[in-house]
Amino acid sequence: MHFQQLTYFVAVAEARHFTRAAEEVHVSQPSLSQQIKALERELGAELFSRARGNITLTDAGEALLPLARRILADADTARHEVQELVQLRRGRIRLGATPSVCTGLLPEVLRTFHGTHPGIRLLIEEGGSHDLVRELARGALDLALLVLPLPAASPALTTVELLQEDLVVVSSAGRPAPGRRGAVHIADLENEPLVMFRHGYDLRELTVAACRAEGFEPSFTVEGGEMDAVLGFVRAGLGIAVVPRMVAVRAGQDLRTTPLASPGLRRTIALAHRSDVEPPRAARELQRMLLGAPPAGPAAGGGPGPSGG
Questions:
Q1: CA distance 70 to 163
Q2: C-alpha angle 274/82/145, rounded to 5°?
Q3: Summary count for the chain: helices (H), strands (E)
Q4: Are 48 and 58 in contact (CB under 8 A)?
Q5: What pLDDT does 151 receive?
Q6: Which of 26, 76, 113, 239 has fewest C-beta within 10 Å?
Q7: Residue range 7-26: average pLDDT?
Q8: What is the pLDDT of residues 185-204, one digit of tens each?
Q9: CA-closest candidate to residue 140, choices 149, 131, 148
Q10: In Å, what is the CA distance from 4 to each residue of 1, 59, 65, 156?
Q11: Cα–Cα distance measured from residue 256 to residue 59, given in angstroms and rounded to the nearest whole number
Q12: Using an 8 Å Cβ cutoff, are 100 and 203 in contact?
């Protein structure tokens, strides 16, 4: 049974005339009759009574007609749904990102993407790189913005480096500036109260590792917060914090930003997806936008590169 045969059957059932039905579906009358006979042979029953030139439905034809209409309508809906997705009028993207990337990088990118593709739903999950790698591995995310290097036990991921960013020190504008000569050395942090992120934040691990490399354990006045909470504690004068520059520039005038002295601290942000599964069409379009590539036409592609805050 073919869609074409069902289309011809419904046309004859509605026109009650083979020649008029053939004209409506733009096929010759003999071809239409041949397809109807083939359908009847396959079903093992006549669908039309052709007595004295009057075309009427048999009982089998009456039973088939609503089913055929529904099948054709479902096929048309399926065609429409797929076209909507292919042409980026509908769909969803499940994007994971570290909290600082959500605060600093994503708002403008997502605003641009949404303006171009308003029918695409954007589902954002914040988390540290370790958590996001786990979500990618179980298929809960299409893409994730992670901090490199990835955990040693990471599943097979394709990652593309997006940017490298300096870390800076933020402090309350109402307290003395930390460090000396307009910069903070890592060794200076030994004598500074730190406001520290919760476990699982890449920034926490990076800061603590830098302090230990200088031979000391940092002292925390407050720890366990998310990005907004940490900035709030710093504003209240509870201590200083090491944050990405993209966060510091948006933090407001009540926070002072001081660079870290050379060589400083940097982090690398990468875009990742599972290597064994191609991201959906809409996710690939966002991927291109994040990587600065020109937008795609009606069909799509992806890209490899080097393999949580």
A1: 52
A2: 25
A3: 11, 11
A4: yes
A5: 67
A6: 26
A7: 92
A8: 999 999 899 999 988 788 89
A9: 131
A10: 9, 22, 14, 45
A11: 84
A12: yes
| Length of the chain, in residues | 309
CB 92 within 8 A of CB 282: yes
Tell me, what DSSP letter sits at residue 199? T
E-only strand ranges, the chain = 48-49, 56-57, 91-97, 120-126, 143-148, 157-172, 194-197, 220-225, 241-244, 255-259, 266-274
Q: Indicate the pTM of the whole model.
A: 0.66
What was the pLDDT predicted at 293? 46
Convert 34-101 into a string of H (helix), E (strand) and C (coil): HHHHHHHHHHCCCCEECHHHCCEECHHHHHHHHHHHHHHHHHHHHHHHHHHHHCCCCEEEEEEECHHH
Residues 55/16, Cβ–Cβ less than 8 Å? yes
DSSP assigned state of 277: S
- Going from the C-alpha of 308 to that of each of 130, 145, 167, 168, the distances in angstroms are 5, 9, 15, 18
286-300 burial: b if 16+ Cβ within 10 Å, else e:
bbbbbeeeeeeeeeb
DSSP 151: P
Residues 255, 232: Cα–Cα separation, whole Å: 10
CB of 127 closer than 8 Å to CB of 308: yes
